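sorry to bug you again but im stuck and you know this stuff better than me. what follows is a protein written twice so to speak, once as letters and once as structure tokens for the fold. id like you to explain what the token line says about the fold, in plain words if possible. anything you notice is useful, everything is just below.
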Amino acid sequence: MSRGREGRRVRIDDQRRYGKLENSCNVKASERFHRKPYQSYTVEDYLKKMGVDITKGVDAGGAETGRKQYQE
């Protein structure tokens, strides 16, 4: 007694179904899909892009001097 379809028949049907899907893609959609990836930026690159001068360094050697409660 046979239960369901045999594996060979299932494999042939799958190949037909997926073969049609792969051959029917739009050329423009394929070009948009195969684009260059986004370029990665470092923090320094982003700050330069925003116009922040990163050559100054940290003033006061990292010590806290600007807050009012610290000055008391």
